[in-house]
Amino acid sequence: MKVDRKEAFNTSSVVGNYLNIYFGQEQGVRLGESGVVSLKVHQVVAGRKGQVKILTNRDAGQCLLEFIDPGQVVHLCVFHQPGNIHPREVAKRIFWAIEEYVQQEDPHPSYIEKDTLQNAVDHALRIQVVTCEGKGLVYDLFQGQLEPLDPEDQVVNHVRVLIKVGSDRYGIILPIAAAVEEAIVNAGLELGKVRKIIHTRAKEQEANFSDYVLVPWKQLKNVSSLTLRENRNQLVMRLAARFGSIEEVEEFLSSYSPNIFHRMSKDQQHRKWGNLEENLQQFEELGIIKKTLLGTFLTRDGKELKEFILNHKCELEAEIRRNIRRKPKKSGKIHKLGENIQKVTNIEYVNYNKVKRHNDDTWSGHLAIPQTLMQAKKSSLLRHESRLTIQKEDLQFYEKRHYIPMDVCLLIDASASMAGEKRQAACYLAEHLLLSGREKVAVVTFQEMKARLAVPFTKNQKILSRGLKNVRPGGLTPLADGIITSVEVIRSTRVNNPVLILITDGMPNFPLWSFDAKRDALEAAQKIAELKVRFICIGVESNRDYLKELADCGKGKLYVVDDLNRSNLVDIMDYEKRVAYSS
Amino acid sequence: MKPYFGLARHDGNQPLFNLVEMSIISTLAGEPLHLHAEGLRGTGKTTIMRAARELLPKITRITGCIYNCDPDRPHCPLHRHMSREEIKALGTEEIDMPFLEISHSAKVGTVAGSIDLAKITDTNNPQAALLPGIIPQAHRGIIFIDEINRLADTSPEITDILLDVMGNKPGRLQIEEAGLPTVEITIQVSVWAASNPDEDPGPLEEVRRQLSDRFDMVVYMGRPSSVDVVVRMLEGSDRARREDFDANSFAAKNQEFRQRVREMAETYRVTELPDFLRNFIARVYIKHNLESIRAIEAVQQGAVLYSILKKHKQIMINDVIEMLPLALKHRVDGDTLVKIMNGLESKSSRDSILNIKDRRPSKATKEREEAYFDGGARRLKDMGRQEIIATEKALNPNDF
């Protein structure tokens, strides 16, 4: 018996060491057949039996408890079949297991029992158990105290144990897991089989701002005017980011005005902005809109908000432009396939702030007269000349700089699947390119049965945003026509180093010349290669093979992203520009 | 030019008035406060900053010292090695606090310093000597840079110099010129800048992030929002044309302010931020993962100055809160800023940092989840030691 316990303890320590290694690599593991343990948040994958996701960008301590530093809390989930299990039962077993472990940890005879108990209690104070019936610290549960579940604790099919423990003591995890299993079996439930674990990043949720944004038109005391101003701005910025532009926010707010002619149907809204359910709920929480028997209307605060937007359009738009210029945070996976071979031409200009000694024989360049003179005077002094002479080696020239203009034609898929976030991201990319560079931007969209020039090549942000406002995804994917139209646009305009960027999430399904939509698109892509336009194709994993073929036909490259979101698109274009500059 | 006290104040530009005054106090007390006003065309950024020139108090320097040496703490290459007596012999003089501008035609030589052309081309006695540029000449005063985003874009070399000057308090400047020994001097100068983020090449933080972080405070100018204010502004311009305004009354106001600045600078030298406010600021830094320590240093400096300017008997939490948007807006995104400011009003950290509330699943998914796992898993104690841990790779080898 004694040997057994010793061995169990050794196993625990070994397991603890392994866990330490895996956690260090930001990994979680399956423990036994029904447990998953990591430092991150776990999520079950709906619709796929036995799969558990480990969200590598959600730290368990930070998300589930209120820890500031990451990596402090070990998150153990033991899955079971539906049924009730009382946390107290689990806590009891865990406590016994800890006691046993602590004893084994230091089996020295002089070790007083009281200390062992104290040590175990220390642990018990740092372990939280959550089951479908309630939650609490092991210590509290042992004393009979039970906390009710928060609405966000979704534990229907597992026991969650959060253990605050240093990396040197991970040995304690195995006994705890075993104890939880025991408790589950004792409660008459079967342990659930975990077949697969997947490491993934949680999609950045559109944060719910109704929790913290103040609606500035509410009667508030002791809030400085600056704070109110920031809140107001932030609220509008968030709305603009969600809907695309100030005008669209206006359009959205108008669609809840009492004037029925301004109201938009649910379907129209959906086509443009995607699913608004969550946003509507937030607006309701903020008190901007309210639901009545006759439908949803703006409240007084909502009307004030609309008024404010109307009166302060120019500042707000300036601030939005500013936000668009900002680079979004990095995220997501991007694969690059293929290379562009087209040559680029650059534009030279003189930098009057930097002077260099002339060292080639062409004698060309802008002479920096004051610097040359000073150099000549200094040299004359050194040469012991009685009069000022200017020698060839005294000549100083202004440095030349060059940059590569890249005029961009965006070819945006506006088929039904692009509605919502993807449409917004593509439009955002267009605005970002226009505002952050000196180049011209054009936008061609394709949907239903044909392509449309939404925005001709322009540097004017107003023209661009007006054009983008009318991009309403819907219908089929006539890619071939889209490519031909944009090739025409590029051909008929004077542009520098034109780049054609295709953003799509689907496959062509409407042909142009024949009956085969895919082949038509490939054929159209050859026209891009003929025109020697740099071609960049941005798509998603599921269409990778076809898009690769398309990119090859157009002598371009393909980027495969995990999600067509703003930051991925902007990242790709940043990279493209850097590549062009360095070539 | 319109007199400083003749300018109409409203909600949108009041913060800039405050900051300009705070910066003057701080500069006089020997600690620079760098300001940056951003806003649309014609919101009065440049007007206010240039008008503040009239308010500048006098400073004392060693007679004729082009580097504005403080007689008590000489720093320039000429005077720093002199003894107290020698300096006394040179005498002192009172000059207006310097207010110099860096324009867009500025070169590294004119900003930092260059060889003195007059001396080197002197036919009788040619010698290589240093001519200090704008920055060393503005020591203990203010430098104003209009359209700083364009300057940062077109002259990265000047920007590098500014980074050095504004990096620490006091900053440093190194003047290098071929044929002369390198000169390094400490510089105590407040940099005031204005820019329109909406014009080429875009906001400063996108052009040169480091430079934008060097500014302690950034004001976003607002437009006047009520008819009354606009009427008052028009009235002011109109009166300036007719020249019937009382120049003397403004001069008296300026004089009075100058007197007050002296007193306030004295107070600033001895005032200390209470411990609890210091802790409070530190907590904001930790909790919201702020990047730059400069941000909270600016909040601290600003809070003290603000309370002095507003004649508060002691520094209050509201002084700190007032400074937060000014010191943080250019350093964090708008979302975080609002969270920081509103978070102070006793919202639980849980609500503001995390949003698990979003993951409210519908009833249907919940039910689906319930019968989600197959039963009959083996228990840990029935498993061999090798089987206990299974990684993602081990469980689904096909995916790798």
Explain the overall architecture:
The complex is a heterodimer of chains A (583) and B (400). By secondary structure, chain A is of the alpha/beta class. Chain A has four domains: 2-200, no CATH class; 209-325, no CATH class; 347-402, no CATH class; 408-582, von Willebrand factor, type A domain (Rossmann fold). Helices cover 42% and strands 20% of the residues of chain A. Chain A has 19 helices and 20 strands. In chain A, helix 14 links the parallel strand 15 (408-413) and strand 16 (441-447). In chain A, helix 3 (87-105) runs antiparallel to helix 6 and helix 7 packs across helix 12 (313-325). Chain A is globular and about 100 Å long. The termini of chain A are far apart. In chain A, 42% of the residues are buried. The mean pLDDT of chain A is 81. Chain B is α/β, with parallel strands linked by helices and 400 residues long. Chain B has two domains: 4-57 and 97-268, P-loop containing nucleotide triphosphate hydrolases (Rossmann fold), CATH 3.40.50; 271-356, Helicase, Ruva Protein, domain 3, CATH 1.10.8. In chain B, 45% of the residues lie in helices and 13% in strands. Chain B has helices at 14-28, 45-51, 84-90, 108-111, 117-120, 134-137, 148-154, 156-167, 204-207, 209-214, 227-242, 247-270, 275-287, 293-309, 317-328, 334-343, 349-353, 363-370, 392-395, and strands spanning 35-38, 58-62, 92-96, 99-102, 113-115, 130-132, 142-146, 171-175, 183-187, 190-195, 217-220, 389-390. Chain B has a five-stranded parallel β-sheet, sandwiched between helices. In chain B, a hairpin with a 7-residue loop joins strand 8 (171-175) and strand 9. Chain B is globular. Mean pLDDT of chain B is 84; it is low at 345-369. The chains are: A alpha/beta (583), B alpha/beta (400). At the A-B interface, helix 1, strand 1, helix 2, helix 6 and strand 9 of A face helix 15, helix 16, helix 17, helix 18 and strand 12 of B.
